[in-house]
Design brief:
Blueprint lengths: L24 E5 L2 E5 L14 E4 L2 E4 L1 E6 L5 E7 L6 E6 L3 E3 L2 E4 L4 E10 L2 E10 L5 E10 L5 H5 L8 E7 L3 E6 L5 E8 L5 E3 L2 E8 L4 E11 L10 H17 L3 E4 L2 H17 E4 L2 E4 L11 H11 L4 H13 L19 E2 L3 H5 L6 E2 L5 H16 L2 H19 L45 E2 H20 L5 H19 E2 L4 E2 L2 E2 L12 H8 L5 H11 L32 H13 L3 H17 L31 H4 L1 H10 L1 E4 L4 E5 L9 E9 L2 E9 L4 E9 L3 E5 L1
Parallel strand pairs: 29-33
Antiparallel strand pairs: 1-2, 2-3, 3-4, 5-12, 6-7, 7-10, 8-9, 10-11, 11-18, 12-17, 13-14, 14-15, 15-18, 16-17, 19-30, 20-21, 22-23, 24-27, 25-26, 28-29, 30-31, 31-32
Helix pairs in contact: 4-5, 4-7, 4-16, 5-7, 5-8, 7-8, 7-9, 8-9, 9-10, 9-11, 11-13, 13-14, 13-16, 14-16
Length: 720
C-alpha cells in the first residue's frame, strides 16, 4: 500500500495567501518585537503576522494612520542601520470634495518614526503643510488588539479562548483580555497631545496648519501582562539609551571591513541584526532565534549562533552557556521530553504554553543541544582561556555528559538517538525538525529511535572537548573520555559511510539501517572533526560541491534527485545560510578553503539580492539562473540570529583562522578570499589581554597576513 501523504506538521507555520513575500519592517527590544508594513501600519488580516508582540502574545493587531480619511502615499521608509528606529516619509493623496480637487497629492508631509523599549513602543508623528494655503485636515489612528498567542498567529487552532474585556478610555485608551490562564493582558495607549475625539478603537486629531507650519505628537503603546504600573516613555530618552547600549556592545567586538562594499553592507546589517536579536537575561546575553516565529530562547540556535560569533565576540558564548546551564533539566518529564542533564530546546511565554496547549513553555525535545553545549564550552575555553568560568560550569557539563551516556544513548550502542516521549512534542528532534526530514533512499520515513549523522559529530566534539577540559583540570577521567571519542569515531565511520554516495548516511533508523540519502548533514561532521579519513573528507567535499547539492546560492539541505527533494520545502532541498556556514567551516577544517570561499561568494551574492542585505532564515533551493533573483521562502524569519551570524563563520572558514588563547596564537591556514574581495581588515581582535589589528591581502596564489597593530603578547602564524 502506498504511503499516505502527510500534509502538515502539528506545529508547522501555515503559509496561506495572506503570507505573501512583501517587504515588512521589523523592530525588537528585549522580549518585545513588532512586524509592520512599509507605511508603519499594522494591518489586521487573517493569517497575517503583523503585530506588536510581548511575551509570546500579540498586544496590537491593528494600528493604522489615515490622513483626510485615506491611507497616505508612501514616499520611502526604512529601519536605521543600527535597527533601533523605523522612519517613514508619506504624503497625502488627492483630496476631492464634490468631484473637485481641493488638495493635490504631495502637499502635506507626514513623517512617522517608531522605537521599542522595555515593554512599550513609541511613535512620533509629525505633519507639515507644504502648500501655499492653510489646510484643515483630520488625522485618524485606528487600533485594536486580539491578544492571540503567537502559535495562533502561526496557524494553530484553539477550541477555547479567554474573554476580551471592555475597553476603557479617557486620558488614555486601554484594551484588555482575560486569558484562560487567569492573566489579564492589557494594551495601554497614551498620547502627548489629547485627541479631539476618541471612539471605539479610534482616535481623531483635527488640525489646522498654516503654510509651512508643522505639528507633532508622540503616541506610546505599553504592553502589560501583570499588575505593574504603566510607564510614561519618552521617545528621545529611549533612543539615547538604546544608542548608548548599542555603542557599548559594538565597542567590545572585533569588526571586519573589506574592499568590497557589498560585503561591508552585509556585515553591517548582520551586526545590527545580531545586536537586535541578543537579549539581556538574568543569566547573561542570549541571541533569540528569529522574528516573528522564534523570538525566544532556543538552545540549538543560541549555541550555533555562539559558535558563529566565537572569534568576534566570545562573550555571547559565555551568556549562552550560562543561560542553558541555568535552565538545564534536572528531572524527568515525558510531557517536556526532559531528562536530567538535558539542555533546553526552546522556552516560551504566553497563554498557550502556560496552559500546556503546546509543550514549549520549557521543552527539551532536541537531540543536539546537549552535545553542542559541551562542545561550545570546550571551544569557549580554547578561545578565551577562561578557566574560572569552566570550573563554575563543570557540574552542568558532567550532568550533560551523563545524559549523553545514559538517556541520550537509549540502546547503549555508543550513538545518540531520539524518539519523542511527549504526546505532542516534536517527531524529528535534530535541526531539520520537519516530520518528513529523515527518510530512506526509497522515500520511506525513518522509524525511531533515529541516530542523525551530524549529531554523532556533535557527540564526538563533546567527548573530545570534555576530555581536553578535564586535562586542564588535572582530572583523571580525561583518558576515558578521549577513549570514548576514539571509539565513537571508529564506529561512526563503519556504520554511516556510504561508498556509493561518497558521503555519510543521513541517519540510522530504529533498526540501524542507514538512510542512503545525500544531504548537507554530513558537512557538520566535517565541522566537528569526526571524519577520520582525509580521502573521505575529499570525497565529501566533491559531493557537497557538485551541481545536485550546490545550487549557486548555496548548498541545499537535500541534494536534487533524492526522493523527497523539493526546493520549496522547509528542510528537503532548501538553502539555509547557517547550514552553509557550518559546511564551509567543516570544509576549511580539512583544508578545502577554496570550496569554503565558493560558498562565501555565493552567500555574498545572496546578500546583495535581499532587501536591507539581510539573509533570511532560508530560501528556496532552485538552481541559480542567470540575472534572476533568488526565490524566497514564504514564511521565513528575517532577521534570524544564526542566519545573521553566518557571515562571520563564512569569513573565518575562508581565511582558515583559528584562535588559541591558551597558547596566545592566531593561525591562518591556507587562507583564501574570493576574487571579489581584495582586502579584509580585522580591527580590535582580542585574545586574552592582547589586541591586534590585521590586514589580509589577496594575491594571485595566496593571501598575505599583515599585522597593523599589536598590543600584548600574541603570535600570528600563516600556513600556506
Amino acid at each position: 500500500m502506498p504511503e499516505i501523504l502527510q500534509l502538515e506538521d502539528e506545529f508547522s507555520i501555515a503559509a496561506d495567501a495572506q503570507r505573501t513575500i512583501s517587504p515588512s519592517r521589523v523592530l525588537k527590544h528585549g522580549d518585545m518585537f513588532a512586524v509592520f508594513d512599509q507605511h508603519g501600519d499594522i494591518i489586521a488580516a487573517e493569517g497575517g503576522e503583523h503585530g506588536l508582540y510581548y511575551h509570546g502574545t500579540r498586544f496590537l493587531s491593528t494600528f493604522e494612520v489615515l490622513l483626510a480619511g485615506r491611507r497616505p502615499l508612501l514616499l520611502s521608509s526604512t529601519v536605521s542601520n543600527d535597527n533601533l528606529v523605523f522612519v517613514a516619509d508619506l504624503t497625502n493623496v488627492d483630496v476631492r470634495r464634490d468631484n473637485r480637487l481641493v488638495l493635490p497629492h504631495g502637499e502635506v508631509h507626514l513623517f512617522r518614526s517608531r522605537i521599542l523599549g522595555d515593554g512599550f513602543s513609541i511613535d512620533m508623528i509629525r505633519v507639515c503643510n507644504h502648500s501655499t494655503q492653510p489646510i484643515e485636515m483630520p488625522l485618524v489612528i485606528r487600533f485594536d488588539a486580539d491578544f492571540v498567542d503567537v502559535f495562533e498567529v502561526r496557524g494553530t487552532r484553539r477550541q477555547r479562548r479567554g474573554t476580551r474585556q471592555p475597553d476603557r478610555s479617557g486620558d488614555e485608551y486601554v484594551l484588555a483580555y482575560l486569558g484562560l490562564d487567569n492573566v489579564e493582558r492589557r494594551t495601554r495607549i497614551r498620547w502627548s497631545q489629547r485627541p479631539d475625539a476618541i471612539d471605539a478603537g479610534r482616535a481623531t486629531f483635527r488640525f489646522t496648519l498654516d503654510p509651512h507650519a508643522t505639528l507633532g505628537f508622540e503616541l506610546s503603546v505599553t504592553c502589560e501582562d501583570e499588575e505593574i504600573s504603566a510607564v510614561s516613555p519618552d521617545f528621545e530618552k529611549t533612543l539615547d539609551d538604546a544608542r548608548r547600549r548599542f555603542s557599548e556592545r559594538t565597542e567590545r567586538t572585533c569588526t571586519a571591513r573589506s574592499s568590497n562594499e557589498s560585503l561591508n553592507r552585509w556585515l553591517k546589517r548582520s551586526s545590527a541584526d545580531l545586536e537586535m536579536m541578543i537579549t539581556d537575561t538574568p543569566h547573561g546575553m542570549y541571541p533569540y532565534a528569529g522574528i516573528p516565529w522564534f523570538s525566544t530562547p532556543f538552545g540549538r540556535d543560541g549555541l550555533i549562533t555562539a559558535f558563529e560569533l566565537l572569534w568576534v565576540d566570545p562573550a555571547i558564548a559565555r551568556g549562552v552557556l550560562s543561560f542553558l546551564a541555568a535552565t538545564q533539566a534536572t528531572v524527568r518529564s515525558d510531557a517536556q521530553d526532559a531528562e536530567p542533564g538535558k539542555i533546553l530546546h526552546e522556552m516560551r511565554q504566553g497563554e498557550m504554553p502556560a496552559l500546556g496547549e503546546v509543550p514549549f513553555g520549557r521543552y527539551y525535545g532536541s537531540i543536539d543541544s546537549t552535545p553542542l553545549f559541551i562542545a561550545l564550552a570546550a571551544a569557549y575555553y580554547r578561545r578565551t582561556g577562561d578557566r574560572g568560568f569552566i570550573d563554575r560550569l563543570w557540574p552542568n557539563l558532567l550532568a550533560a555528559l551523563t545524559w549523553m551516556e545514559r538517556d541520550g544513548d537509549c540502546d547503549r550502542d555508543g550513538f545518540l538517538e531520539y524518539a519523542r516521549h511527549s504526546a505532542n512534542g516534536l517527531v524529528q528532534q535534530g535541526w531539520k525538525d520537519s516530520n518528513d526530514s529523515v527518510f530512506h533512499a526509497d522515500g520511506r520515513l525513518a522509524s525511531a529511535p533515529i541516530a542523525l549523522c551530524e549529531v554523532q559529530g556533535y557527540a564526538y566534539a563533546a567527548w573530545r572537548g570534555a576530555a581536553q577540559l578535564a586535562e586542564v583540570r588535572n582530572d583523571l577521567v580525561a583518558s576515558d573520555w578521549h577513549a570514548r571519542a576514539d571509539r565513537l569515531r571508529e564506529c561512526f565511520d563503519d556504520a554511516f559511510w556510504c561508498e556509493d554516495l561518497g558521503t555519510y548516511a543521513l541517519a540510522l533508523d530504529g533498526d540501524k539501517r542507514p538512510c542512503h540519502v545525500r544531504s548537507s548533514n554530513p558537512a557538520h561532521c566535517l565541522f566537528t572533526g569526526i571524519v577520520v579519513s582525509q580521502e573521505r573528507a575529499r570525497r565529501m567535499a566533491a559531493t557537497l560541491m557538485d551541481d545536485t547539492s550546490f545550487a549557486g546560492w548555496g548548498l541545499r539541505t537535500v541534494s536534487a534527485g533524492e526522493p523527497r527533494y523539493n526546493p520549496m520545502s522547509y528542510h528537503n532541498g532548501s538553502i539555509w545560510p547557517h547550514d552553509n556556514a557550518i559546511a564551509a567551516a567543516g570544509l576549511a577544517r580539512y583544508g578545502f578553503t577554496a570550496a569554503a570561499t565558493r560558498i562565501l561568494d555565493a552567500m555574498l551574492d545572496l546578500s546583495q539580492a535581499m532587501e536591507l542585505h539581510r539573509l533570511p532564515e532560508l530560501l528556496c533551493g532552485f538552481h541559480r539562473r542567470s540575472d534572476e533573483r533568488p526565490t524566497q521562502y514564504p514564511v521565513a524569519c528575517a532577521p534570524q540570529a544564526w542566519a545573521a551570524g553566518a557571515v562571520y563563520m563564512l569569513l573565518q572558514a575562508a581565511i582558515g583562522m583559528d584562535i588559541d588563547a591558551v597558547r596566545r596564537r592566531i593561525t591562518f591556514c591556507r587562507a583564501s578570499l574570493p576574487a571579489s574581495i581584495d582586502r579584509l581588515v580585522l580591527t580590535n581582535l582580542t585574545v586574552g589581554d592582547a589586541r591586534v589589528d590585521l590586514a589580509l591581502e589577496r594575491h594571485a596564489n595566496d593571501v598575505g597576513v599583515n599585522v597593523v597593530r599589536r598590543e600584548g603578547q600574541l603570535e600570528i602564524v600563516a600556513i600556506k
